[in-house]
Design goal:
- The protein contains two helices and no strands.
- It is mainly α.
- The protein has one domain (5-89).
- It is rod-shaped.
- The two termini are 35 Å apart.
Length: 92
């Protein structure tokens, strides 16, 4: 026995609403992740610039490698966290 047309319309409307909510959540998470990656990149570049600016060789070396670690490590951590959130949400 087929389902009534009103019930099918309600189911389709609910599915469209839930799909829109899921798309909005995924987009918001991607924007958040991109902004966090830009922040880590900016912090890493700031440390690298500080390393080039300072006149102390040892301090410059410390800030150079710190900038590399902060920039790359922060971006990797952010992308892995975004992947875990996407897994929980069921994006992939």
């Amino acid at each position: 026995m087929p389902l009534p047309r009103e019930l099918l319309d309600q189911m389709a409307a609910r599915h469209a609403r839930e799909a829109g909510d899921a798309d909005r959540d995924r987009r918001r998470d991607h924007v958040r992740t991109a902004l966090q990656c830009l922040g880590w990149c900016a912090l890493g570049v700031y440390c690298l610039a500080w390393a080039l600016h300072t006149s102390d060789e040892r301090l410059g070396e410390v800030f150079f490698f710190l900038g590399l670690a902060i920039g790359n490590g922060g971006i990797i951590f952010t992308l892995l966290a975004a992947y875990r959130r996407g897994e929980r949400r069921g994006d992939w």
